[in-house]
Amino acid sequence: MDSDRLLPLEGVHNFRDYGGYALASGGRLKRGILWRSGQHHEASDADIAAIAGLGLSDVFDLRSDRERQSHPCRRPIGFTGEIHIVSDGSLNTAPHIAAIAGTRRDAETTRANMITSYRGIPYRPKLIEMVRNMLLRISQGEGASLVNCMAGKDRTGFAVAMLHHALGVHQDDIMADYLLTNSAGDQAARLASGQRTVSSTLGEIDEAALKVLMGVEAGYLDNAFAAITENQGSLDAYQTEFLGVDEKLRDQLRDRLSEG
Questions:
Q1: How far apart are CA 50 and CA 9, in angstroms?
Q2: 37-62 pLDDT per residue, tens
Q3: Mean pLDDT over residues 105-112, rounded?
Q4: Which of 73, 144, 164, 182 is the most buried (most CB within 10 A)?
Q5: CA nearest neighbour of 6 among 172, 150, 186
Q6: Which residues contact 125 (CB under 8 A, 6 or more apart)?
Q7: Class of 12-255 per CATH?
């Protein structure tokens, strides 16, 4: 874990900078303007003050209506950034919550469900809408941005991967950033927070299943990319068809986010 990527907070987990990676076109992403995290429902006053200091101009909350209503995020007093959501009117839950919703809640079944669920993540209509808006907004905006979901690992991981790919970040770095969830910050506190969220929705689960549920594995994201390749032929083709990514948008993103 690159410790300087992590914003150490008390009640918000997986809060980290996903900039700094080298780009195929030369240079690298700027630091301090691209942030990702889990939900802010349990943010402490100290957390709120630290987040306020980032100068966020845009927050992309990928959660469903149900999630936002049951676990509303705390914001700094007088927060002036724009909060982007998609109101879906559904009872949808996070992919990792859905993976544990069945009758079998052991680690093996949970892992298999997570792998399967990732094939559908690129084709969630509301997530597509949010990621499309996120790429466009970041290309045109000013200031720092934050993207979050419930745990900051599945939907957020996919959204970050899409921005990284559009910018020309190497696939190895895309995966490395995705996997940082497993080492970012206080893992015991992150697991305990996940346990509270899961319990409030579905009841208790055992420790082994919880660790699978709250972690990420290369095979998960690989499965999402495999589904895209099978259906669209390539990530570039997927991004053009579903996310509106063309050379103009790529140039705008690089102009806005790269240095060196």
A1: 8
A2: 999 999 999 999 999 999 999 999 99
A3: 86
A4: 164
A5: 186
A6: none
A7: alpha beta
CA atoms 202, 208, 209, 214: torsion sign: positive
Mean pLDDT value across residues 214-240? 97
For residue 110, pLDDT over 90 is answered with: no
Judge contact between 48 and 76, C-beta under 8 A: yes
Residue 200 has pLDDT above 80, yes or no: no
Active site residues: 149
Exposure string over 193-210, b if 16+ CB within 10 A, otherwise e:
bbbebbeebeeebeeebb
Count other Cβ atoms within 10 Å, centred on residue 260: 9
B/e letters for 149-167, b = 16+ CB within 10 Å, e = fewer, are bbbbbbbbbbbbbbbbbbb
The answer to whether residues 57 and 144 touch, using CB atoms and an 8 Å cutoff, is: yes
Domain ranges of the chain: 12-255
Q: Residue 19's pLDDT band (boundaries 50, 70, 90)?
A: very high
> Beta strand 34-37 with 144-148: parallel, antiparallel or unpaired?
parallel
* pLDDT at residue 141, as a whole number: 86
Cβ-proximal residues to 38 (8 Å cutoff; 6+ apart), any chain? 12, 13, 14, 15, 148, 149, 150, 151, 152, 153, 156, 190, 193
Contacting residues for 176 by C-beta, under 8 A, at least 6 apart: none
Q: Coil, strand, or helix at residue 33?
A: coil
Q: What is the largest CA-CA distance in the chain?
A: 52
